[in-house]
Amino acid sequence: MNLLTPARAAITQKLKFLATPLVLARAMHIQSIPMWVGKGDNYAYLVVDDKSKDAVIIDPANPPEVVPVLKQAINDGKINLTAIINTHHHRDHAGGNTKLLEELGVSIPIMGGKDCEKVSKTPTNGENLTVGSIAVKALYTPCHTQDSICWFFQDGEDKVVFTGDTLFHGGCGKFFEGNAAEMHQALNVTLGSLPDDTKVYPGHEYTKSNVKFAASVLQNEAIQALQKYAENNRETQGKYTIGDEKKHNVFMRPQDPEIQKVTGSTDPIEIMGKLREMKNSFK
Predict the structure, then answer these.
(1) pLDDT recorded at residue 239
(2) What DSSP string describes 25-64?
(3) What is the model's pTM?
(4) Which residue from 51, 53, 200, 282 has the least number of CB within 10 angstroms?
(5) Among all residues, which ones are annotated catalytic?
(6) How do strand 128-131 and strand 110-111 relate by DSSP bridges?
(7) What DSSP state is assigned to residue 201?
(8) How far apart are the C-alpha atoms of 96 and 91, rounded to whole Å?
(9) What are the φ and ψ backbone dihedral angles of 43, each rounded to 5 degrees?
(10) H helices within the chain, ranges in order?
């Protein structure tokens, strides 16, 4: 179902794409917009289909930092902004929706969970959408909030997922409105079923603190490599994939004997709950 752009024939698109030299060109462009750096360390993301210039802005919670970027791109004719997308209703993700629309002077859909500010469309779980030629799928991942949605984008072989406060590099969100069973389902079933080469774009830059906790629980090469990268780079978003998370994210390794030993359980849900308790009190 195409809610963002006019309907197109997907098969024809693919055939045309494969028949031209653009087959190796990247059509999906992602621009990270850091917000509240040093405080909340949030990210908004501008996703653009370079072919059509259709674009969406994900979690533009702080308009003073986001609007100038969008206005410049619009004025330069680089984007056609078609929607706001939210990962969940917390104000540091969805709280800028109304002001953003006012400052841009546009009327576009706001897509997200039912409790997001001024939401106009809540997709069903697994619903397929498009942004230009980019395929988008809404994935329900309730736990951090009950309206949490992770957004999977795919353009050819290029795959990314915007995970809000559900999955971080090396960690996961707090269970504010859910429980360990829901987070296990979100991380190890829903997101864990995505292709391993799917790049992860989380809602915050929390990698340094996450990997510090991970290293206290488990030592492996992947965790050591993540720790080294986080220590030397302020931004880590999009640098790691679902496959990487399965190696360095302790919340996605319930089968690991060392993690089972630390948590005193072999049950994945009990392991998830124990790890979250340990992380909550970790300093």
Answers:
(1) 98
(2) S--EEEEEEEESTTTT-EEEEEEEETTT-EEEEE----HH
(3) 0.91
(4) 282
(5) 88, 90, 92-93, 144, 165, 204
(6) unpaired
(7) E
(8) 7
(9) -125, 135
(10) 10-18, 63-75, 91-94, 97-104, 180-184, 207-217, 221-232, 242-248, 257-263, 268-280
